[in-house]
Design the sequence.
């Protein structure tokens, strides 16, 4: 089947699972958010695992440890970078809010999740560089 199709479907599911968080407010149903979190978590596994498999495709046994280290470094840096961006968005939203309290916090997190949605959509571009499957 190839990693491209799995990653593209998983990115779509991740985007769909992100929307309830981007629209969430103080009165949002927690069950809905729990279901959305489950969808996002499952979809993220559908992104990371095929990418990891693609990273090892065609490598000799001697090259696999180096690829393993490289992919782990990129995952760590990418996760830290993404978290830092979203934390900065939340901080900026809270500092510039004209209101305070739960509504301000909800608005700040909505903005961060819209950024997350945008990053998910942008990830479609490099996903097209993944393999389509066996020829």
Sequence:
């Amino acid at each position: 089947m190839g990693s491209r199709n799995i990653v593209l479907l998983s990115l779509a599911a991740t985007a769909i699972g992100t929307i309830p968080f981007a629209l969430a407010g103080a009165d949002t149903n927690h069950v809905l958010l729990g279901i959305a979190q489950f969808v996002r978590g499952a979809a993220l596994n559908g992104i990371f695992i095929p990418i990891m498999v693609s990273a090892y495709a065609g490598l000799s046994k001697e090259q696999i440890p180096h690829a393993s280290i490289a992919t782990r470094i990129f995952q760590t840096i990418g996760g830290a970078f993404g978290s830092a961006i979203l934390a900065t968005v939340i901080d900026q939203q809270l500092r510039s809010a004209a209101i305070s309290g739960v509504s301000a916090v909800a608005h700040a997190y909505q903005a961060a999740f819209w950024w997350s949605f945008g990053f998910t959509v942008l990830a479609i571009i490099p996903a097209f560089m993944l393999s389509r499957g066996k020829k």
